[in-house]
Amino acid sequence: MSVPHRQLYRVVFSQELAVGAVRSGVVAGYRLLYHGLPYVLTKNIWTR
Amino acid sequence: METDEQAVAEPLPDRPLTETSQSLLVFFPGGIGDVIALKAVLEDLHQLRPWLNITVASTVADQWIIGDVATVLDYPVTETVAKGFDAWVNVAEMDFSSVGRELVETFAQYVGIPCPDHAPNIEPYYGYIEAMEHYIRNWDKPRVGIHLASASHWRSIPNFVGLYVAMEMADRGYDVYLLGGPEDRIVFTDNEEHSDPPDNIYDMTQVLGPLEYYLGFLPSLDVLLTCDSGPMHMAGAMNIPTLALFGMTNGEKRTGYYPSVRYIQSDMECSPCERIAEVAPCDGQWCEALARMNPLYIADQLEEVYRENHDADCLA
Predict the structure, then answer these.
(1) Is A9 helix (H, G, I), strand (E, B) or coil?
(2) Which of B227, B281, B223 is nearest to B254 (CA)?
(3) CB contact under 8 A, A21 and B110
């Protein structure tokens, strides 16, 4: 079985980073991502 | 969102989904409509491979939509959490935007199963339905919900259009419930003094912030008016009679797989412009194609949707 794949990235932030909730409207909010802790991200949002 | 120019990023090796995978993490930061489309695919995947532990990285509130077919985590997850799964599928980078049937097909391809042949379906928890029923003011009157705001502003119904429709429906004997979250509240004034909404119009935005409350309230409505928004997808997946207004996006594409949803596409030449990822080229603060819709025509169509689905004798 072969399925398409899009690249994933291991990202370590140098500072705490506030990110918005995935969606707004019905549910809104934000949270902080920690610095120094590796996250798995789907695209280059860290420099967007 | 903030940025971090000093962040260190490196591509990760694939963890493809295989026949022997025991656990799957789906990376999926999408809109509610996309999550509902994904649910149909996850249901089929679960049936085909019941041993597979499926988790979705999205917004934990989506658990109320996904149900028990998968676990939902907040995106992003840490590397430690992600490495607890045999397989990863990233569908977040797709150019999806709630465009209908082809979205389901693409999701199915990504997890390696045939395209589902059933519509998405949401069943809210009975406890929330029962709790939200207490907000209904008068069960003897027909009840219309109006949700004006879309997370994508240019798809929103302009307040002056939506409130005109609300007042018209109230005049025609309906109770009107204004839906949304706390950020969608419309402040009414009378001679520049803060006032309650007009008679028979009720603000629900201070109640319906949690997604599970919103899902629980929808079944109490007879008919819903909204735009190209999450609530349209939720109502469609719950088979609630709905009229949706479309300006910049294409109503035929986006409502095609919801039997209970009808739509009005603006008759302006620019509609649908489909400039989803851009700022709309409209002069005012609203999509002109939506701002120029006739509220009385919308009210007529809304009543028609109501009458198609209910006994019209109860109207005053």
Answers:
(1) strand
(2) B227
(3) no
CA distance B76 to A8: 11
Long-range pairs, B10-15, Cβ under 8 A, ≥24:
B10/A9, B10/A10, B11/A7, B11/A8, B11/A9, B11/A10, B12/A7, B12/A8, B12/A9, B12/A10, B12/A40, B14/A5, B14/B88, B15/B85, B15/B86, B15/B87, B15/B88
**Average pLDDT of B173-179?**
98
* Inter-chain CB proximity B59 and A44 less than 8 Å: no
- Cβ count near B112 (within 10 Å): 18
Among B47-61, B99-113, B214-228, the range of highest mean pLDDT? B214-228
**Cα nearest neighbour of A14 on chain B:** B7
Dihedrals φ, ψ of B20, to 5°?
Answer: -100, 0
B230/A19 touch (CB, cutoff 8 Å), yes or no: no
pTM given for the model: 0.87
B230: nearest CA in chain A?
Answer: A26
Under the banding of pLDDT at 50, 70 and 90, the label for residue B59 is confident
pLDDT digits (tens, 9 = 90+) for B6-56: 899 999 999 999 999 999 999 986 778 888 888 889 999 999 999 999 999
Q: Looking at chain B, which residue has its C-alpha nearest residue A37? A: B78
**Six token digits for residue B232:** 């349209």
Chain A contact set for B2 (CB, 8 A): 17-19
Strand partners, B77: A40
Inform me whether the pLDDT recorded for B258 exceeds 50.
Answer: yes
Q: E strands along A1-48, which residues?
A: 9-12, 17-20, 30-33, 39-41
Distance CA B313, CA B316 (A): 8
Kindly state whether A36 is in contact with chain B, defined as any CB-CB distance less than 8 angstroms. no
* Residue listed under structure tokens 């169509």: B301
- What is the rounded CA–CA span in Å between residue B182 and residue B259? 30
